[in-house]
User: Fold these one by one.
Assistant:
Number 1:
Amino acid sequence: MKRLEIIGLMSGTSLDGLDVAHVMFDFTNQKVRFDILNTGHYPYEKELKTELDNALNLGLSAIEVLNKELGNFYAQCVNHFIAKNKIDHSKVDAIASHGQTILHQPVNGYTLQIGCGTTLAVKTKIKVINDFRTKDIILGGQGAPLVPIGDFDLFDGEADAFLNIGGFCNISFKPKNQVIAFDICPGNLPLNRLANSKGVEYDKNGEIAESGEINFFLLDLLNSLDYYSQNGPKSLGLEWLEESFYPLLKFDKEIESNLRTVTEHIATQISSVLQKNGIKRVLLSGGGTKNQFLVKRIQSYYDGEIILPKEELIDYKEALIFAYMGALYLKNKPNTITSVTGASRACVSGVLHTP
């Protein structure tokens, strides 16, 4: 299999919807080549988004119902995507789906991403690979971050480090030829939740945050959270936000000040990691990259160069990389990195579902 055609699905913790990337991978040479053929975004319907946002509080049976419901939604999106872009269904080798993270507690030995793979496979009539995190956790790893394998296989040489600002902010870089990656801090999740309190989905361009004043007491509390003093490998989950981060914020008043302060917190944590590790050039991706005020605040602390790629990569880089992880799975090649996750060995992670 020198060439593989994969549809990658990414559904992030920001709950803005499903990103779809249709990608051709060429493994003929040592450096993998890729061509993004089509992309698409499918927002969650309001009811489904509300259910997903509340999933952490659901019982087992309700989560299983939601798992099937989300699998059906993914299938509808993929079938529409294939029809809209006139894709030859028979040439698609697989769908690689990240799923929607509901639980992530590697310290307790488990993680859960829903979006039923069997439902997706049967309803699209295409093989599906999902559940990319579990095997790594069983091997003692964090099950995250997973994106760095794509950063350095597909984009090596374009920057010293790769920073994704999504629901959480994660970074990958390669000092002394060993890939290091971890979650730095929260990203869009607290910013969006605060913006929701103002009756908007998100703080466009960071305009609300820019209008607020920094609460330096709150900023010190946020910067003092234990997670930031831990050594890697490490990763963040929704549970950490609910238990450690959100209790420090006020969601019913002082929204402008809270947004300004959390934005400053994110900028200081990101720039601290970049400066500490001597990163001279960093490539940004993810929805938070479009928050102009946040990027401006990062640049105010960071001495190096911030690279903004073309919009297609800003929006669909993670969907592209999960497509790549699916391609590696089909080629029976490891798609995890031990220096990143802390697992006892690299592995071919994922679960295959046939139509």
Note: The chain has a mean pLDDT of 95.
Number 2:
Amino acid sequence: MTTNAQVLNVLFLCTHNSARSILAEALLNHMGQGRFKAFSAGSSPRENQQPHPLGLHVLAHAGVDTEGLHSKSWDVFAGAEAPHMDLIITVCDNAAGEVCPVWPGHPATAHWGYPDPSEGDKSDEEKLEAFRQTLHAIQRRLSLLINLPADKLAHAVLETSARALGSV
């Protein structure tokens, strides 16, 4: 990112692209003030995979637009016709350990792990609270990302900056 006017494309990856990556995509598009364009995908979304309804609920309740959110394979972003990504962030440990496609342009990468809020035999209320907590955790890191000075978002140092936020 060389100027304040240039948009930084960020791809969030998870296994199924139904919860954490969807939350991150929607939040960054909401918070990014036009300086960031977020996308999300999964390494192996299930057939007919859709965003988790509780994820959509917490986003809507937080005032974040959910229009157009849908689950998709990361293959969508690996082709020559795909938007060029500046930064790719895995948000689940499974996706972080998988062999990713070779991304066009060799974007910076980072891992920001979050527990799966939909996992387990919890009640709907417990899962809803897990989604809220995940939303807030992602929001905290994204707030730090969008407020980094321009020199920390330059391609040469972007990976170091994003990885450092993974330990926050």
Note: The chain has a mean pLDDT of 89.
Number 3:
Amino acid sequence: MKVIYIDPMSYNNLAIYDSCLLSNVNANIYFVGNELYDSKQIKSIEFYPFFNYSKKKGLNKVISYISSLIKIIGLVKSKNPNIIHIQWIRFWYADYILLRYLIKKKIKVVYTAHNILPHRRQRFDFIKYKKYYKLVDSIIVHTENSKEILISNFKIEEYKINVIPHGILDLSTSINRDKVEILKNEIRHRYNLNKKIVFSSLGAQDLYKGTDFIFNVWNEAFSSNNNVFLFACGKLSDEIVEVAESTKISNFNNTYTKFNRIENELFLAILQLSDVVLLPYRKISQSGVLLSAINEQIPFIVSNAGGLSDALSIGNVGWNIGYANRESLLTTLKYIINNSEEIKNKKENITAWSKIHKYYSWEVIGQKTTDLYNRILYNCDKLVKKDI
């Protein structure tokens, strides 16, 4: 079984995802990725860094991406794969043309829908993605919630949808661990964190992640509380710039803010210093920050968005605020601060963490992906191709 695995965004957390998944899939893999790929190389897999659009702008970015897809067509002709597994759609029209080409060549196509629709939706996104979903042979989603959306909203046949969790993200495998320890010691000493409850909001700061809830609640209720501390690090969306300025979140003595993309070493240092990770998302399918927190066994606050609360159904290692809003987040934060012993109890709930780690195990995920490849190759009678 020969598989061409395509990820145009294979860098940072996504590179770790690719590396962990492909290390556990039993197939002859040709990996087409980004030139910025920064995770470990896999000895048994041929790597083709065809994508170099990331640092380009405007028309040059589009031309570069189309050029990469042309190279993929050449690879398909030379390798004659049974399956193409696509991880992300970046320029829909170009990706759609590639998909039509693969279908005409009678190559099975698997698509991983990390997000059912883009976070920043444009006018015709629903129509375009529905068209794409209808044509592929199989769709991988990470949560039951995403599966239900594809069935109910997009009218996708249930047999085409496969729920395979997004595995745990272990950043320590591809970074300077000594630097992480140095950063932790410096930050802990500078802000005297030893006796404080430390909360963190990491990664891109955006409305869909509920960053405005965090900033407003902190400004309203906790800005003068010397027993708590907030890390808010990551690039601000345009909407959140206004919230950051209006709340003056960067001016408080009990906050540390860095509003641009942060290096992996600083991300991991802050994560490991955190007592609770804040994820009051309005909408999401699955969160890389959550999976990094799970790997480090850091308790977390989540909403009911997407599959964020799935881990809590397996083990009691965090808090679910339900529908994401300012009031529910405020209530939960007050409860945690007044009942801080719960943080320690959740951190030390070894049985719960063990069950969660098993559910998000890359070995299990790799086997499920291998099983899917085999099914779409050998049970073709169950996969009826739509007219094109």
Note: The CA atoms of residues 66 and 94 lie 6 Å apart.
